[in-house]
Design a protein that fits this description.
heterodimer, A: seven-stranded mixed beta sheet, 0% helix, B: mainly beta, six-stranded mixed beta sheet, 11 strands, globular
Chain lengths: 114, 111
């Protein structure tokens, strides 16, 4: 059974803290993604990685950075958390070829920044 | 810019058929995907259309018209468990499989 796991389901942080969100996939997928999901806005791509140490900005990268040191792990970093980063964060992975538009999602991390 | 439009809410009764439409305007297009997300859950993949026409998978079917930049998800024999949000998503990155998602349609199935 394919799996994408995220380090926390719920997280509460204070403004200005550095926050790490971890994502691990066990499917040997080349591509990994970080999204945030807000009511009425759907899923918006923050960052994307197509290989180890390779990354690309998505649509809303401001205030975020990422790290992919190993193929199975993709980390999202909030350098200095702000209240407008309170959201649901979803990690996803997919194969590199013949993917047919399919991404596998983790359960999400609901982050609250106070 | 890139945009996808789908209705925000749809209500139907058990046993009925419902169609969720999606129109898109994107700079690149490889295909149209559909995802289901139950409240509190992760999005799960339902279908993908790269070519025009209808694809059927059990009670769910998905249609694409590339010339009209339009697609829909058809759910038949609705069940209470189909109550969820449904997202259309355009694949605009080839091997990267990058998707841009619509804002989602909340389907409420009533008894």
């Amino acid at each position: 059974d394919v799996k994408v796991t995220q380090s926390s389901r719920y997280l509460v942080k204070r403004t200005g803290e550095k926050v790490f969100l971890e994502c691990v996939q066990d499917m040997d997928h080349e591509n990994m993604f970080w999204y945030r999901q807000d009511p009425g806005l759907g899923l918006r791509l923050i960052y994307f990685s197509y290989d180890v140490k390779m990354k690309e900005k998505g649509d809303i990268p401001e205030g975020y950075s990422v790290s992919r040191e190993k193929k199975e792990r993709f980390s999202l970093i909030l350098e200095s958390a702000s209240t407008n980063q309170t959201s649901m964060y979803l990690c996803a992975s997919s194969r590199g070829q013949r993917t047919g538009g399919e991404q596998f999602f983790g359960p999400g991390t609901r982050l609250t920044v106070l | 810019g890139q945009s996808l439009e789908q209705p925000s809410e749809v209500t139907a009764v058990e046993g009925a058929i419902v169609q969720i439409n999606c129109t898109y305007q994107t700079s690149g297009f490889y295909g149209l995907s559909w995802y289901q997300q139950h409240d509190g859950g992760a999005p799960t993949f339902l279908s993908y259309n790269a070519l025009d026409g209808l694809e059927e998978t059990g009670r769910f079917s998905s249609f694409l018209s590339r010339s009209d930049s339009y697609g829909y998800l058809l759910l038949q024999e609705l069940q209470m468990k189909d109550s969820a949000s449904y997202f259309c998503a355009v694949k605009y990155g080839g091997a990267t499989n990058k998707l841009i998602f619509g804002t989602g349609t909340l389907l409420a199935v009533q008894p």
